[in-house]
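Sequence in, structure out. First:
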Amino acid sequence: MTDSATAARRPGEQVLAALGLGAPVPSPADASPHAFPGGGRWRTEIPSCEGPEALAVVLKESSRLDVPIHRISQGSGVWMLTDAEITEMVEATGERDIELCLFTGPRGTWDIGGSVRTDSRGAGLRARGHDAVAGCVEDAVRAAELDVKCLLVADEGVLWTLHRARTAGIIPADTTLKVSALIGPVNPASYSVFEHLGADSVNVPSDLTLDHLTEIRRVSAAPMDMYIEAPDDLGGYVRMYEVAELIRRGAPLYLKFGLSKAPGIYPYGTHLRDLTLDTARERVRRGRLALDLLARHGADGDMAPLGSRLPGPLHRFPTDVTPLNDEKNED
């Protein structure tokens, strides 16, 4: 843990201490010992950026409000974008040295299976059957050919398949694989399994407690993604005042600036244009609010360098795939 993380001030600390209501001193034992490669304990992400027009709004607002961005992600899927749209997004993010992450393939909630519409959600967002996995792979290969460097997945089998494809040289070795919040792990054992299956960053549900984050960090250094403000379909949690402590416990951590009290926009189309652009703009503003809180609490000095995207060394299950270049698989 860095000095600036140690010195971070908690909300209302001085006033409450003066009134005899001070909180216990944070224990160094519950702080994450991990950081991103190249330095820094947190990065930023703007999610739900559903095409070139929304991306342009995000980039304009981030410049206006001085919100640094490491990653921009999209939720509708590769298949909802034309090649020209993907290329435009790749070029625009490339000019700013921002990682672009696109969602892969079919998911259960858009499939014909009735179980996903029951109260239990059945198979949820996972890929149902061989054809759904094949669709995700098709999206991944197409996106990689268009120079997309980060793929977003919502199924363990798809994650393992794409990791094996990466190991074999079918998609570029520097492609990063991000686990969606829609299947996010809720305990350290499952978090570690995702890391071993090939995840380079893992989105956890935003209702995990601070102790849960510490438990995860005792078994895994894989970067964690977390909505500081979650969409309503993921709970609508707003945890801005906890940002400094979330970083202290969960680093290396992507701060995701979602938006509660906003209608869903997946899968995106022009019929949702105004809503999508308005919410894209507001997500950046929410990011500015969270970063302002970090600054006021003296915890804004550990941001990873802009342009950094790789996760560092991680633990993987052995694969049974021989790379196309015949080099020995070091996983």
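Second:
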Amino acid sequence: MADNKVDFINIKVSEIAPNPEQPRKFFSEEAQEELTNSIKENGLLQPVVIRPVEGAKVPYMLIAGERRWRSCQAAGLEVIPAKVVEGATEEEAYVLSIAENVNRADMTIMEEAGAYADLKAAGWTPAKIAKQFGKTETHITWRLGLLTLRPEVAEMVDQGQIKNNLAWHIAQLNPANQMVAAMRYVRGDFDSEAEAQHFANGLKMMEQQTSLTNEKAPTAEEQEKQKKAKAKAKDGLGKAEEVLIPLLEELAEKKPEDLAVILGDDLARHLRVVGRLYAKVQMVRNLLSKAQGIQRAMAEDFNKAAVEVQQEAAAAKKTEAAAKTEARTADKPQSTAKKAAAKPAPKPAARTATGTQAPARRTPAKKAEAAAK
């Protein structure tokens, strides 16, 4: 870009078009209004940066300064100062645009990640991107890692509901677990961001392993070991509560000048011991916090598995009920047929050869008279 020709001119606002590839998509209305009022009072103090575009409806396109250009329009300015960069390629123009915005407080983290991703797609390595914008390679890699966030979580990050470091940990999860970790953090289920990170790491472990616990039930020997370890830890905490905490509380109540006299030559030893305790407490607290994250992730996984079992049981019950209904429906015509077969059929009436009923036989007259006598 050093070989490109640069001129300073006054140009009509209407002859400049915004860059459709502008990496920054979010503009604060309040900040925009403040800038507009400033331009009304003082004019545009810092020129916008533009480049000529051949064959376009509008002869120039913005490289940097879209906020200023918008505010100039809102302030009613017709002509503004501009820095014209001749011969800049689209990639060079894009790099200039990122350079102007990347360190601004109002450029969201997801906009920054998207801008780096565009450069990476153009063949830039994270190391080259970092050198270009004065960042560390780790910073660039972490930003690029956020692009795996599902849209709902990315919006929470953009709105500041989820901080950058936690966002990266959540981005390592599958989409379903991303939503679980994000919603639990936003609704306040964790006392700190570190706790939320440990929970996200626990979910990641659950994704990488089929189970954090043995599928088989522990043996009697294993159960006994677990029981002894739990009792030992509980006993240790009990001693700390009985001895160490009261001692520290007693020291905390004293004034520095009193401790200097009371402890005397032992002051340095107390300071050294408490320093060691502090380091160990910090280490163990972090370890316990990670364990709690894993425990919560295991509970979340168990709850999901329980729901799946309930859904499977309900589906099986529904299928069984449907099968019984179908069996009853199929059985009804068969019962009717059996009843019809069991009932004897009526005897057919005697018919003549012509098919009509035969007439009743009559007794001869002589026989009838003899019977009467």
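Remark: The two ends are 151 Å apart (CA to CA).
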